């Protein structure tokens, strides 16, 4: 019996389908495919290569090292790689030389980027803090940042590619106020002599629901992985397909009498003679202890509850008198088409969001790529070949 203890199946055809669907919704606006956190836990390189094969020409990856990983596997400069969270000690020379797009929010970041310029100007996006208070220049700091960027561009040191912000998505009124603030900052920049060619403010939810916020480009992340962020909306409602399916194999079964305490602290006791099935996935793999009593997993098309404490490496399910055997496949979450919970259902059960669920799936869970993986750049990369 060679069934894996645990695996995350990544359906690249589903990712491609979602990408095509979302691009159709956004037309004629450009889509930047967001792939931070190792492509939301799905694996950066195969996801990025799938997007490139599909014609995507903007990818957001958060950090310069992630962008350089993509350049190193053959993602060429016809694909713009946008980064916006920078190590304070980062030397930007490799980023500039590799034509990485750099989000800039402070004068210090801009100064360090300008100092790193050698043969070619740095590609810069100027960030505006419109109320989220994570990234972007404040109202007070914006004029000085714009003037410094204007002067550096005139000197041939940088190319100001865009201005951007990120919305809090707390309410329609708050988002409208944030976009109005962003628009005012762009107008101020132009008054100061800096032409802003491209604007991007909306991410997945705002891009989906507020057409007036799409500007020139929308940053799409969760929707592309089949994880819509709109309340009460499933992937199926939108025609999106979940990309990750998390499975494991039953490692052991054990028949126990009524009143048996299960796992640490005996927080669950059997109310009848029953069978317990051991599933070799635990909180080290991204299944939180909170899942006990809230999450059900599917075996042979039937859902069973996680019972007792989730341990570091395993949890137990109570399968009653059903014929569940060692080696049977346990589906933790997937498309929902075979009786299993979806990642959105996990998010609701755990008082969180689907994005957190997939991002928490740990590195010892192998990612197994299906579908598009046999083609073009993706297939070559997964076979260890040079494209």
Structural description of this entry:
- With 387 residues, this protein is α/β, with parallel strands linked by helices.
- Helix content is 30%, strand content 23%.
- The chain contains 13 helices and 19 strands.
- Strands 11-14-17-16-15-18-10-1-19 form a nine-stranded mixed beta sheet.
- The mean pLDDT is 94.
**Termini gap:** 35 Å
Helix segment count?
13
Instruction: Assign the structural class, choosing from mainly alpha, mainly beta, alpha/beta, alpha+beta, or little secondary structure.
Output: alpha/beta
Strand content: 15-25%
| Total number of beta strands | 19
Enumerate the strands of the largest sheet in spatial order, edge to edge or round the barrel.
11-14-17-16-15-18-10-1-19
The rough form would be described as elongated
Low-confidence stretches: none
Q: Determine the fraction of residues in helical runs and give it as a percent range.
A: 25-40%
Radius of gyration over C-alpha positions, nearest whole angstrom: 24 Å
Q: Layout of SSEs?
A:
Layout: E1 6-11, H1 12-26, E2 30-34, H2 36-40, H3 44-53, E3 58-62, H4 64-72, E4 80-83, H5 93-97, E5 101-104, H6 107-116, E6 122-127, H7 142-154, E7 158-164, H8 172-191, E8 198-200, H9 204-209, E9 217-220, H10 235-238, E10 244-249, E11 252-256, E12 261-262, E13 268-269, E14 274-279, E15 296-299, E16 302-307, E17 315-320, E18 329-333, H11 343-349, H12 354-359, E19 367-370, H13 376-382
Helix pairs in contact: 1-3, 3-13
């Amino acid at each position: 019996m060679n069934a894996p203890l645990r695996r995350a199946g990544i359906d690249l055809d589903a990712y491609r389908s979602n990408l095509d669907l979302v691009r159709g919704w956004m037309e004629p606006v450009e889509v930047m495919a967001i792939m931070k956190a190792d492509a939301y836990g799905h694996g950066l390189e195969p996801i990025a290569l799938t997007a490139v094969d599909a014609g995507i020409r903007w990818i957001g990856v958060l950090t310069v090292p992630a962008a350089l990983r993509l350049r190193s596997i053959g993602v060429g400069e016809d694909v713009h790689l946008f980064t916006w969270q920078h190590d304070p000690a980062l030397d930007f020379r490799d980023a500039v030389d590799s034509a990485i797009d750099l989000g800039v929010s402070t004068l210090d970041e801009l100064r360090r980027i300008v100092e790193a310029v050698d043969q070619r100007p740095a590609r810069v996006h100027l960030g505006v803090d419109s109320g989220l208070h994570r990234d972007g220049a404040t109202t007070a700091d914006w004029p000085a940042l714009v003037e410094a960027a204007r002067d550096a561009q005139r000197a041939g040191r940088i190319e100001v590619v865009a201005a951007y912000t990120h919305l809090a998505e707390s309410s329609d009124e708050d988002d409208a106020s944030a976009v109005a603030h962003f628009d005012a900052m762009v107008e101020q920049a132009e008054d100061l002599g800096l032409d802003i060619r491209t604007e991007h403010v909306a991410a997945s939810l705002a891009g989906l629901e507020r057409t007036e916020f799409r500007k020139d480009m929308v940053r799409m992340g969760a929707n592309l992985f089949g994880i819509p962020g709109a309340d009460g909306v499933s992937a199926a409602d939108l025609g999106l397909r979940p990309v990750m399916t998390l499975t494991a194999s039953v490692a052991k079964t054990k028949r126990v009498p009524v009143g048996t305490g299960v796992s640490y602290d005996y927080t669950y006791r059997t109310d009848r003679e029953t069978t317990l099935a051991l599933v070799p996935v635990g909180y080290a793999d991204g299944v939180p202890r909170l899942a006990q009593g809230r999450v059900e997993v599917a075996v042979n098309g039937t859902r069973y509850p996680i019972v007792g404490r989730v341990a570091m490496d395993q949890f137990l399910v109570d399968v009653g008198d059903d014929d569940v055997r060692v080696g049977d496949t346990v589906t933790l979450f997937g498309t929902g088409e075979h009786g299993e919970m979806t990642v959105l259902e996990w998010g609701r059960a755990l008082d969180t969001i689907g994005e957190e669920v997939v991002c928490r799936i740990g590195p010892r869970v192998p990612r197994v790529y299906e579908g598009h993986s046999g083609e073009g750049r993706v297939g070559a990369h997964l076979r260890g070949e040079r494209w």
